[in-house]
TrEMBL record:
Cross-referenced InterPro entries: DUF6126
Source organism of the structure: Streptomyces coacervatus
Keywords for the protein's UniProt record, in alphabetical order: Membrane, Transmembrane, Transmembrane helix
Residues spanning the membrane: 12-34
Identification of the protein by name: DUF6126 family protein
Keyword Membrane: yes
Pfam families documented for this protein: DUF6126 (PF19621)
């Protein structure tokens, strides 16, 4: 039980960090597309 309780939050944090990182990269990519397209 203790092993499960320790692994779950770590996997959740890793997934959350990856999701946020990918979201920021995707937003930056779209921002660059609009910035280049506006010129």
């Amino acid at each position: 039980m203790s092993d499960m309780e320790e692994k779950f939050p770590r996997a959740l944090w890793v997934r959350l960090i990856i999701y946020i990182a990918v979201g920021h990269l995707f937003a930056a990519f779209i921002y660059l597309l609009f910035a280049v397209g506006a010129k």
